[in-house]
Amino acid sequence: MSSIRPLQAAAIELVALSKQFASGPPAVDNIDLLVASGSYCCLLGPSGCGKSTTLRMIAGHELASSGDILLENRNITHLPAAARGTAMMFQSFALFPHLSALDNVAFSLKMKGVAQVQRHARARDLLERVSMGHLAERLPGELSGGQQQRVALARALITQPRVLLLDEPLSALDPFLRIQMRAELKRWQKELGLTFIHVTHSQEEAMALADTMVVMNRGAIEQVGSPREVFNRPASEFVARFMGGHNVLDTPGGKIGVRSDLMQIRPADGPLSGAEQGLPAIVIDVQYQGTHVLLGLQRSGSALPADSTAELSVMLSETRFAEHAYTPGEAVRLSWAADAAHSLQSSPARA
After folding, report:
1. Distance separating alpha carbons of residues 298 and 275, to the nearest angstrom
2. Tell me, what CATH number does 152's domain have?
3. What is the pLDDT of residues 127-144, one digit of tens each?
């Protein structure tokens, strides 16, 4: 269990929130969380970690088994979705295919009985805000994925929510458009001054967007912090492995994490400095990635199976790799500075 206590007022507070389905362990297990007003919060974790269930409970699309959900100190746990002050932007965009972009955006106001002139005026204003005013009369099938996303965002905003909930909104887009749209999401969030809570399984996406990252695992919160905090100092072995770019090592003092770009590597027969022994390893993979080269390694000491996979990694700049081009099968020694390592907690055992 983990929580964050921001200096700003909390837009959303989760108190001992749980969700238990008919069978199996809890999907969400007694979590506490404060999301600061006006912040961009990403719920992050592997499939089945509880992030989408948490988002659906905040939205009112899933009932909590126990605990409370507060929006600006108002308990919304048992309110219907339409009365909560939140809006959801779905992964599939869920636009009505037979309605124009304008009528898709205006639809919720139509259901509330707002006159056509008024609802269309508000819908056009929002479409202009997301640079879609010139395509207001197009059907969803006539729009690109990025354009459909803008319409879906405008439709969510027309209800004037206090908190916008986004369920993997970029996963259906191609990689280039995904990068472009995440920049636009961040810009819109800042311009609107709204609180965004965004579910994703992508570490890169969360680090690019979030003010606050919430890493979840098996229904619980492993760590809460800024992207820089979570990446540089993962709290647990799970977070270190999930975020990537870290080596997890067993030492006499317990498990430690060392970033791949802070590991030192030298040939096994190279000179050691002082009393340094180094960790013997064998290179099993070399990946050129443009600005750097990523080496996958396995600790030596026993015969390598034919299907061996990397346990450790070292990231070298192109310049450093050019000084010694390591090759698969090569014996090496790894080392690291004392201040490059930090201790890792074990994740709590869960049923």
Report:
1. 23
2. 3.40.50.300
3. 998 889 999 999 999 998
